[in-house]
Protein 1
Amino acid sequence: SQQGEEDPQALSIQEGENATMNCSYKTSINNLQWYRQNSGRGLVHLILIRSNEREKHSGRLRVTLDTSKKSSSLLITASRAADTASYFCATEDSTLTFGKGTMLLVSP
Amino acid sequence: NAGVTQTPKFRVLKTGQSMTLLCAQDMNHEYMYWYRQDPGMGLRLIHYSVGEGTTAKGEVPDGYNVSRLKKQNFLLGLESAAPSQTSVYFCASSTGTSWNEQFFGPGTRLTVL
């Protein structure tokens, strides 16, 4: 199975700014998912984008998928301190494989 | 609904001891998973189950055994714990294949001395 790789590893921004995280992977996928993990907690599903989709929105989240470049991006608009967490992409082949995550710090 | 629950939340073992981690879900999900999370490593799949009475190996199965005797429960066993198994263990469940949204438990922090 393959592993998505998030970039950057860490990101620090101010409240109100936008945060962009990227995920790259190596082989063809059926779908790609993004999860959030608050410190000391389990992961929470944010959004799933299928291989035939290019963009998806959910509230302040916008996810894009470029299968030709084998990459996805997660944009959080108008960030809040409560968005401080680690964000993981997960790619699906026979099972779901998680990347190592991006740690996002949003300062008030 | 409680969702996915894990027991215990914390545990300290000595090398060679055994223990069982319990995962329970009340969402009637068919699929259940056990992951471990180590610093800088992301989540790695240990074992998973596609239904009651079935189990399958994931990416890092060595040193672990699992059982799914009831649909709502998925047990992870360590027969002879090693320091390399110090980690945070997460259980998850989903309605169907892994390409559905997975619901995670709060985790079990295990330290092996």
Note: The first strand of chain B starts at residue 4 and ends at 7.
Protein 2
Amino acid sequence: DAKTTQPPSMDCAEGRAANLPCNHSTISGNEYVYWYRQIHSQGPQYIIHGLKNNETNEMASLIITEDRKSSTLILPHATLRDTAVYYCIVKRWGWNGNKLVFGAGTILRVKS
Amino acid sequence: GAGVSQSPSNKVTEKGKDVELRCDPISGHTALYWYRQSLGQGLEFLIYFQGNSAPDKSGLPSDRFSAERTGGSVSTLTIQRTQQEDSAVYLCASSLEGGTSGSRYEQYFGPGTRLTVT
């Protein structure tokens, strides 16, 4: 599975959009981009995933560049409850097992 | 619907004792995973079940760790002769389908069991 690079931390004002970047320059054509987050003292929570096209759900939007070498998770109106560690994971199912390999992630701090 | 549940939520045990941690996955999810997170550390994969078999045990740190899954549902992670370095939060996750089908189902995590070895 491709390696990902994320900034260690970011701050965002409450009510503003939070844009979390992820670089995955070695991604291959059949690898998906997944985003999870972990709020303090809770288990990780799935947010969104995508392959090539931009995706949107009730939680967030995922923008993947045309060359697929990077992506951005967008929380459109961040709230204090969105303060968490956000993990970008690139995964090809069935390859090297199906386990998720979590990096250090990005600590997002939403401030009032 | 009901999510992944784990029990106990907290467990304090003495060094050298055995412990069992339980995971109830989401109904119908064929894949089940165990991870652990030590204080200040990242999430570390332990073992993966597809149905009742475990095709990937590569993350189990020693032979003191074992896990089983019965009926394609409940899983138990057992740690024998616990050591202080086993202290961590043990997380269970399930997904609708794993395997090599190319499916891409997301994993849903439980709240974890916090294990403290004194």
Note: Residues 95 and 107 of chain B are 5 Å apart (CA to CA).
